[in-house]
Amino acid sequence: MEYLIGIDLGTSGTKTVLFDTEGNIVASALVEYPMYQPHNGWAEQDPADWRRAAFETLKTVTSEVDASKIRGIGISGQMHGLVMLDEEGNVLRPSIIWCDQRTAAECEEITRRVGAERLIEITANPALTGFTASKIIWVKNHEPEIYARCAHILLPKDYVRWCLTGEFATEVSDASGMQLLDVPNRCWSDEVLEKLEIKKELLTKVYESPEVTGFVTPEAAEQTGLCAGTPVVGGAGDNAAAAVGTGVVKDGKAFTTIGTSGVVFAHTSKLSIDPKGRVHTFCCAVPGCWHMMGVTQAAGLSLHWFRDQFCAEEMREGEARGVDPYVLMDQKAAEVPIGCNRLFYLPYLMGERTPHLDPDCRGVFFGLSAIHTKYDMLRAVMEGVVYSQRDSLEILRGLGVEIEDMLACGGGGKSPLWRQMLADVYNCEVKTVQSKEGPALGVAILAGVGAGVFKSVEEGCDKLIRVAKTQPPVAEHVAKYDACYRMYTHLYPALKDCYQELAQL
Prior knowledge:
Elements: E1 3-9, E2 13-20, E3 25-32, E4 44-45, H1 47-62, E5 70-77, E6 83-85, E7 95-96, H2 104-114, H3 116-123, H4 132-142, H5 144-149, E8 152-154, H6 156-165, E9 169-171, H7 172-175, E10 181-182, E11 187-188, H8 190-196, E12 205-207, E13 212-215, H9 218-224, E14 231-233, E15 236-237, H10 238-245, E16 253-258, E17 262-268, E18 280-283, E19 290-296, H11 300-310, H12 312-321, H13 325-334, E20 344-346, E21 364-366, H14 374-398, E22 405-409, H15 416-426, E23 430-433, H16 438-450, H17 457-464, E24 467-471, H18 475-504
Helix pairs in contact: 1-6, 2-4, 10-16, 11-12, 11-14, 12-13, 13-14, 14-15, 15-18, 16-17
């Protein structure tokens, strides 16, 4: 038996999964780590935590098999994070990660220097606070002594790659989220780099996602249980990896993920760019193809926040019964009627990307009255996240993206209630796949392509991806949710000016 490894470097933890070449899970391990918020709207993590988590989980899963039978490794990662290293490879500062919102002024600077239309033409996206380029400019503006010492700029998963292989490398899907890549041509943009005065030598070589980027070093092998020389492929940003792991690698296929953030993602073999910048176009993990996606900044994060602040009772009960507290929360939310007794939630805890592109907006409960209970609020959080994802779907449909198959994945995809909400709010069937390890399986498939186990990404998906459940919409629910969604879409425009005033207080 031969094996493939997928490492999924997330925001809350890193999970490493060992698969056999038939896609069966042989072993998995998870190590969690914190996120730091030194100021309102800031979000940082320590790259040393990522390295520790990756190496510990690799050590765990490799202990289950003969490591010489592991054909390849792929790495998935949270996108957009800025990792800065000096000449010796030392981390210069905590990583500013994807949900950080400090860079509004830098986004204005980028737009001014490159030009709004030209920026979208090259990078397929407007200047966004979450993207890496604005973080680089922020460090340059606010921490010039650190910027002066910077010799290498990496993304989170690519830092782990360097720890494993000693190679500085990235790949097209993750690099697309840096705002420095020429997305149509799948290479660094000399024009953008020149206008932003960022030295090209700070960046790494760009590969296609299934290409081999390096090999495990003897030092890393000793610490992880891997064999030195095991190939490590480009891998993919988390959403591009999830697409491969759910089989969304052909036209007409799409998925919705509810992880820390939420995404509506559609594959396309034809380049399409939203001139308004409401949804993102990135290179995808299939060579020569792209994907379009809308992003909700705080999807699962909203439910996680609600759990930690208001659901201590469910957490205690879950621990006592050996049940995930989210399962108990699901059961309670299911008892609340659609519309939550006229209560709405805007999931803008960390600002928002699609469709508002507003770093200043914040979460809201609207319609709160004395009749409402904690569980009305709980369901409102879940519904608000789904409404925000319908915002993305409506834009994709408006741009002519045809979606025939919709899959649900991510932690929220495990919730029957959330999946039914998606089917009802989208008014389409929502499917799941048998494997719950979307990103990890996706990069394991990419590793299989790089190692010669599969001839192509599509072949790997055809062999390993299997549909599990299908949830059709309920007609009665669709009508109720449509009315609620119309109300939801009125709230942000009514509050937009207030958000700006709030940010100035």
